[in-house]
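To assess whether ligand presence alters the predicted conformation, the chain was also submitted together with copper (II) ion. Input:
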Amino acid sequence: MHVHRYERLWIWIGTITMMVFFAVLLVVSFGQGLAAPNHVQTIDPAKISSTPPFDHPGLRKLSDGTYEAYYVGQVFSWNPQSITVPVGSTVHFYVTASDVVHGFLLPGTDVNLEVMPGWVSTATQHFDTPGEYLIVCNQYCGAGHQNMFAKVEVK
Ligand SMILES: [Cu+2]
């Protein structure tokens, strides 16, 4: 069967492009460990107030100097309202909701989580710049949605 020169060229360009995309996918998923968020941790939304560590939301310092911050979202507030960490800290955020779907966004950082009742969403952020970082809900959750915010103070 005769395949025209240009057709053969485009078949090769298409094949090589697909191979490059596949290689990028392999490097990003296995080399850099990037993956879609998954439901590693679940929680009964009706029992958050008696399920550690969400029964006492807040900040905990780990032995390696990093921090874990446990947040519970409910209409229309975050618990805790405010945490303070030193400059240069790495904070692992663990966020869940007790009622409806919320969003957990720290503008200017990579932290942007969908927070659903029954699931624990996680993100890690390194804070190199001192200041007050706002946490806002970016999923409309009801009439008081605009009042749903908290802050991270980095000093
Ligand atoms: Cu909201």
